[in-house]
Amino acid sequence: MKTVVVILVLGGVVLGGGVRLAHATEYLQTLKEGSWLCTTPEAYDLAIAEQRKLESDLEALKERLLAQKLWIYADAAFVEKMMVPYAKVLERQGNKVKVTLVVQYRKRLEFLHRQISRVTFVGWTAAGNLEDKEIL
User: Closest Cα to residue 34, out of 130, 135, 136, 132?
Assistant: First the structure.
């Protein structure tokens, strides 16, 4: 009986190690810089159309659309603050995907004190705005 238990335990360790190796090369997806994250696929199409019309004044467009609370522009700082597992795809609709992601914000209050906030975002973007990021 002890031999069977030892074999099962060793088999679990060997098989478990193989499973971990298979996941070591798994890719997670993150948003590309310059992507829009919107509440609906239609809102995403509208944001892209507005961006094409007003290409020169992107900052004003970002502020105006953010004030309506329907869109978020993923710039370099936003993408850098994304936490693992980065962007998880929840739903697909044509060439658009609904993703969820967590962004961590840090604020220094005093010398050794920091405030850390984590915000979960859910929204629609183009499938082409997702890029693979390798797990190290």
Answer: 130
86: left (phi over 0), alpha (psi -120 to 50) or beta: left
CA-to-CA distance for 5 and 117, rounded, in angstroms? 46
Rounded-to-integer distance, Cα 111 and Cα 80, Å: 24
Per-residue confidence (pLDDT) for residue 18, from 0 to 100 = 40
Cα angle, residue 104 at apex, residues 131 and 65 outer, rounded to 5°: 70
Both structure tokens of 70: 């329907």
User: CA of 3: how far to CAs of 6, 7, 9, 10, 119, in Å?
Assistant: 5, 6, 10, 11, 50
Whether the bond into 41 is cis, omega within 30 of 0? no
> Which tokens go with 134?
């390798």
What pLDDT, in 10s, does the model give residues 3-49?
433 343 334 433 444 434 334 445 788 889 989 999 999 999 998 99
CA distances, 2 to each of 6, 12, 13, 15 (Å): 6, 15, 17, 20
Provide the b/e sequence for 31-59 (b: ≥16 CB within 10 Å). Answer: beeebbbbbebebbebbeeebeeeeeeee
